[in-house]
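Re: beginner question about structure tokens

> Can someone show what the tokenized structure looks like for a real chain? I only ever see the sequence side.

Sure, here's an example I had lying around. Input first:
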Amino acid sequence: MSETLTLLAACLAGGLFGVIFFGGLWWTVGRGVSSQHPVFWFFGSLLLRTSITLTGFYWVSGRQWDRMAACLAGFVLARVAVTYLTRTDAEPIRAAPEASHAP
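And the corresponding structure tokens:
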């Protein structure tokens, strides 16, 4: 397999890990908010999502920095995609403007 295809495969794998990680986070928040014991949902999900992601990154990278970078790029792109797809149409809360102290 050529180097370009290897890096593309690493990027796609990183995207898959990102969808698992951030999609799992979105799912966990939905379940945890209405749960009697949300700490179990959040902590358990954190352990599971992190272990899947780190194991996947280690396996895909093959101890090569360029594959790790491609995997990370796919992971970040998946974060943007999941954030876009799971957003709500509610108006975001904005901080109050800071007062100017200039004379």
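Each token stands for a local structural state, so reading them left to right follows the chain. Residues 3-85 form one domain.
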